[in-house]
Amino acid sequence: MRTALLSLFRKSPFENLIKHAEAVRDSGPVFQQAVLAYLDDAMEDFETFHNQITRIEHRGDEIKRNIRGHLPRNILMPVDKFQLLWYLREQDKMLDGVQNALHWLSYRKTNVPDEFVDDLLFMVEKVVDVVSSMLPLVTTADRYFQSYSEKHREMVKDAIRGIRDFESQSDIVERKLKSDFLSYDFENPTSAFHLTKLVQYMGSISDHAENAADMMRAMIAR
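Request: output the structure for the sequence above.
Response:
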């Protein structure tokens, strides 16, 4: 019965959601390069990557508006429209988080103490991991809603578990870095605030990824 109903759909509602997830994925390596340039005091390179992120975020916003403005009306959809839009909202906030982190970095040049660089770069790696994980999640979900096979459903659940694991790892290092920065004897207290807020922005990216994953779990539970 479900397979027969699929013939009533004009196209998968996930088509543009996949394009949006591609924009999210594309932000990861650029974000990593931007942070590395910042740490190396290569501020011109940092601004180049910063501007690239702004363009990627703009592309994501255009796709988001297209999805919101062109969801089919009076046509059966394999997922609840509210859930789809809520998922999109959380996935889009990941791009906002990447952009906000670089905006925040650009306001001030703060030297990161050597003993904290490895943990900071580890958190950057978690950002790359989690933004890269959204595309496999959405493409696998698209396959599931075309087939409703248990195999694809389990693949979606595996992708969700992976995202939750990335969020858990990010949360651990986020708490550690916040404690380290606020305890460190910086010459200027603004440095502690600047770095702590940066970590908070990065942590929000994984938080929104987990929120999106939770909504996807609700969608496949239908």
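The chain has one domain: 11-220.
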